[in-house]
Design brief:
Number of strands of chain A: 6
Largest sheet of chain A: 4 strands, parallel
Number of helices of chain A: 9
CATH architecture of the largest domain in chain A: 3-Layer(aba) Sandwich
CATH topology of the largest domain in chain A: Dna Topoisomerase Vi A Subunit, Chain: A, domain 2
Order of helices and strands of chain A: HHHEEHEHEHEHEHH
Strand order of the largest sheet of chain A: 4-3-5-6
Structural class of chain A: alpha/beta
Shape of chain A: globular
Oligomer: homodimer
Mean pLDDT of chain A: 91
Chain lengths: 205, 205
């Protein structure tokens, strides 16, 4: 790209370092900002800087939070004995939006992936084991993504906690609500048959 | 979306105000910044702020520039008598990347579009007419996009300059180099037949 301005080139380069944003998209975004009032760019820059400098991680569940303990961990109405293990904050947001879970979370910060150089020591696994050792948790729900890395991480944690008196479960895998059977992949369909549930239970919602 | 952090929510809201970026994408981008070193967010914010506050518009061609006159207008090797009229800076960059044009540009800043409320007074049309009146320009090349708005803008400018002794042209429309005829739309194909060029000319370039 032939830039007529170093300032423009610099801004485009920085924006295009974001994942999934190429030079052309970055240029489009930056030129958009130039057409908007100066304040818009100011608000955007400040919001990003404030977030990066001031955001905290909840001491208990490692969720992103503005306070030392996040709103969920602070909420006395939630059942602290049931803990849902997730990869990252987006999974917390997804589960919260269902309003079906009233326990607490434990955010690992990723999953074990030798290819990406992520081992157990890079994740919040020790603090989870520690919670289990202290007897704080009665049930642990694994809600990691259904990939080899997710399964590996589940298994790694499970091996370290199986000696404790604790219930473990994983979220149900099966055909999505509203999906046609013929379009489901065979692994998912297979699992949904093996892990079938009593009909009475299914109509309860 | 249920945000566990106001700082996060604010950053996601600001990022999702950019065109073509929804809340989910904004969240992905912002969480990416949180995983990167603090400096990356600092560089990004500073680059955007510097650009927005310090970038100039070339006095002569209205291209984005770090100086009062842009590099192209300052270049004594370029032919100031041939001026290519374009919508915005991206078109300048596209034409510059071909290395086929050695004249100057005139950036209108958009095209006449009653639907979007953009009239001739919102564009850099008066300054173009003024250049023509002063006799600075011998040839004007219209390189606006081939849409109704582009054609309207071309025609509006043409009506005001036709009384002056000046050559006007538009860039050639036709089948893209490397394209199969059968996939071309009929308007383009039709124009490419009407505006056919001597064979000897076609093999020169």
């Amino acid at each position: 790209m032939d830039f007529s301005s170093k300032l423009l080139e610099n801004a485009v380069n920085e924006v295009s370092r974001l994942p999934g944003i190429g030079k052309r998209t970055a240029l489009r975004l930056v030129l958009h900002l130039l057409k908007q009032p100066t304040e818009n760019t100011k608000y955007l820059s400040e919001a990003l800087l404030h977030l990066r400098n001031d955001v905290k991680t909840c001491e208990k569940c490692h969720n992103i939070s503005d306070t030392v303990l996040c709103d969920i961990c602070q909420n006395p109405k939630r059942n602290a004995e049931i803990v849902c293990v997730v990869e990252d904050i987006r999974d917390v947001m997804a589960i919260e939006s269902t309003s079906q879970f009233k326990g607490l979370y434990h955010v690992l910060g990723g999953k074990i992936s030798p290819i990406e150089g992520i081992g157990p020591q890079n994740l919040q696994i020790d603090s989870l084991i520690h919670k289990v050792e202290k007897g704080e948790i009665k049930e642990l729900i694994f809600a990691l993504s259904s990939t080899m890395e997710g399964d590996t991480t589940n298994f790694y944690i499970f091996k370290q906690i199986e000696k404790f008196d604790i219930t473990t479960s994983t979220i149900a895998r099966g055909i999505s609500v509203g999906d046609e059977l013929e379009y489901a992949d065979e692994v998912t369909l297979g699992r949904s048959i093996v892990n079938r549930i009593p009909f009475e239970q299914s109509i309860r919602g």
